[in-house]
Amino acid sequence: KAGVTQTPRYLIKTRGQQVTLSCSPISGHRSVSWYQQTPGQGLQFLFEYFSETQRNKGNFPGRFSGRQFSNSRSEMNVSTLELGDSALYLCASSLTESEAGELFFGEGSRLTVL
Amino acid sequence: GESVGLHLPTLSVQEGDNSIINCAYSNSASDYFIWYKQESGKGPQFIIDIRSNMDKRQGQRVTVLLNKTVKHLSLQIAATQPGDSAVYFCAENYSGSARQLTFGSGTQLTVLP
């Protein structure tokens, strides 16, 4: 069974550009969450989707957005990139929408903003 | 300006010894807790979880202890192996927050030969 797949794994952008990251959850999983990981702030929740609906959003500016498609695949977008957006962006999927149960993380998309 | 990174607590143990990693959580309303292991270049990997109606749960070579009175969580790893070297995170969640996990800052575990 394939795990959570994130693309691209690495990317470099410049300030002011925008970026779209993709996440394919484990087959059958309908919940997808996104986290940002930086040395300064650690792992921080971005948002969570279930059945194409955003159920929760973390404390990030509106430049960070996401969506989920009918096949459960998810994308997140960051517009007007800032140097501080350099981070590892992690996607996690879960079988259920409940607050408990295992979250399966992908290996992340490492974004560098120059 | 210079960016300041999180100063991860570190723990070094001899191979074969037991390891204890501690975590203080912040939200007294949290009712679900998870330990994750993150190896370099990889995403966090689920180790074990525990609900707030329990104070101990055991898995294979791992035990999680929960003390709600002092909001403290610990992970015990028995017979620590080189493959256990990684950063370990605790995470908390509470009913009604969907899957919004709040992660601790992590502990770097190094297993010495």
Measured distance between first and last alpha carbons of chain B: 39 Å
Q: Give me the count of strands of chain B.
A: 10
Low-confidence spans of chain A? none
- The number of helical runs of chain B is 0
Tell the overall outline of chain A.
Answer: globular
Quaternary state of the chains: heterodimer
Give a verbal description of the structure.
The complex is a heterodimer of chains A (about 110) and B (about 110). With about 110 residues, chain A is mainly β. Chain A has no helices and eleven strands. In chain A, strand 4 and strand 5 form a beta hairpin. The N and C termini of chain A lie far apart (about 35 Å). The relative contact order of chain A is 0.33. The mean pLDDT of chain A is about 95. Chain B has about 110 residues and is mostly beta strands. Chain B has strands at about 10-15, 20-25, 30-40, 45-50, 55-60, 60-65, 70-75, 85-95, 100-105, 105-110. In chain B, strands 1, 3, 4, 8, 9 and 10 form a six-stranded mixed sheet that branches. Chain B has a four-stranded antiparallel sheet with strand order 2-7-6-5, with no helix packed on it. Chain B is globular. The termini of chain B are far apart. The model of chain B is unreliable at about 1-5 (pLDDT under 50).
